[in-house]
Amino acid sequence: VVTPPRAASAPNFLALTPERPRRLAAAFPEACPRKSEASDLPALANDRGMTDVLCATVGALDLEREAEVLFADEWGPGNILVDLLSAMGSTEIAADPWLRDQRPPAKADKFGVRQLRLRVLVPPLPMAPKTSRATMTLWVATERTREGLSLRVDSTLALYDTPYCEYFHVHERLIFSASAGGDGVNISKAFALVFSKSTLANAMIQLNTLMTQKKASENAQRFFQQRASGPCQSLSNLPGLLDEAELTPVINSKVVGLDVQREVDALFAEEWGPGNPLVDLLAFVGSTEIQPGCWLKRDPAPDSKRAGTVTRRGVREINVRVLVPPAPMAPKTTSATMTYWITAESRPEGPCVTIDSSVVLHETPYCDYFHMHERLTLASAVDGGGARVSKGFGLIFSKSTMAKSMIQSSSLSTQRKSSEAALAFFRRRAPGGDKASPSDASSSAGSFIGSEAASATASTCESTTDADGRRTLTVEAWELQRRYTLFHSTWEAPFLPHDAEKRWRWVDNDYGRHFLVTARGQRATRDSVAEVDRPDAVLKPPPGWRARQGESGAWKVVPPPGSADEDGWQYAVDFYDT
């Protein structure tokens, strides 16, 4: 593990020092697919014990595409089940790998079993919390019929924080099938309670569950109806774009060695993550919580490769948290939605790809008044040996505002700076360029967790592989504390204004907010993180890795460079990283 130089006073100066750091480390084994026997999984109810709560027909959902996304290795926004759970108020949704060696049903065309870890809303009940941790086990199967594809999802939901949660779990069955006329999709849902212990509260649990299931089914029907006519099926409600003449150019430069065809192949891949140029570029310029959605539209590559023809087209969205330039009343970061229109074409000099994008911010002043259109073009150079990178942008206002000229001026300044960063990114990406990019560090951690995380992983993470091919991710962190005066004996998270990101308490080797605080997309606040005394509660393993179980948790105090007391604390008059 990389060890940064750390200056600190010796422990015997404790009476004169108001600050103290200590070094921590955790080892996360890779969450590899595991073999699981049927007896390891929750029991399913008998068909005759199921109670129907939904039977409806919605618009023409694309079941082929929904099934394709469902059987992908990575689950995120765009997956119909993840989107449904999110619409129902569930959070902290994390998918485990597919379980191996599961016996499929007799008529199943495709079949798979996997589990989700999540936090679900709990209906108002006496002594019940507002939310509960839960595990959902999913049996996903498709079947070909005369009408078309049929999709069936059996699921069990086991709660952990509610009264009587150890006495039962809920089995739900959701079936999608093409309607007889082919102009819609039939959706049915049924549920049953599976009790593992007897209880006097059996009747009460059954009644409350029935009421909850009926309400949830009504919400699910609305969700599926919206999805059938929503953005994943129609592009009519996407942000508008400008004509090329209305765009302001900010880049036009050649990048030696850049392989346009490689970028095109990565852009049209089913899964987006480290290695995709747009995902890596977002990480490079400081964006975090990058969550690619499903393809909203993707035309297959035609057979024709003649020059001047469009070879591929696609539309896709990314939800992301981006940095906000310093401005009055503006936050440091904001959530944003980026919609990409990607067009690849064949030219005499080689492939070319044009990426039109709309950037909609959600938490900045005047964000509901405008959105930004950017056009990035990677074209094979006429003289060979690289590509010409060009970029332009424009603002599209949906409302009039007195601040229009200020927004335009600020956007132009921001675009010029970000364009310089984009050009540097593509120069690094070309063969022979500087490969120490944030996306490489992120990839080494086994998951895409954003640039802020990625820049931290370069000095905070190390992945090792044992003789059996099992990988382990070792992560470092520092805990920082400060006391009010030399005469106080109580230590707290750093609180002075100049402490900046040190006020998060759990930080990386550069004393910045640790990337694992938001590794699973959780919207943690600085105050909520700083008040937590156990690192396991806030520094969760990144997706694709799991925590080792133990009485003291995954995180351990490890010896720091230099002197320390018996608990691993170092002491100094301020926090130093050199």
Spatial strand arrangement across the major sheet: 2-8-7-6-5-4-3
What is the gyration radius calculated from CA atoms? 26 Å
Beta content comes to: 25-35%
Helix and strand element order: EEHHEEEEEEHEHHEEEEEEHHHEEEHE
Main pleated sheet? 7 strands, antiparallel
Question: Which structural category fits the helices and strands?
Answer: alpha+beta
Count of DSSP strands: 19
Count the helices. How many? 9
Helix content: 10-25%
Query: Uncertain runs with pLDDT below 50, 5 residues or more?
Result: 1-16, 32-39, 231-236, 302-307, 434-459
Shape: globular
Average pLDDT taken over every residue? 80
Cα end-to-end separation: 17 Å
Could you characterize what this model shows?
- The longest helix is centred in the middle third of the chain and has 28 residues, at 202-229.
- Residues 1-16, 32-39, 231-236, 302-307 and 434-459 have low confidence and may be disordered.
- The protein contains nine helices and 19 strands.
- The protein is globular and about 70 Å long.
- It has 578 residues and is an alpha+beta fold.
- α7 (438-444) crosses α8 (451-460).
- 19% of the residues lie in helices and 33% in strands.
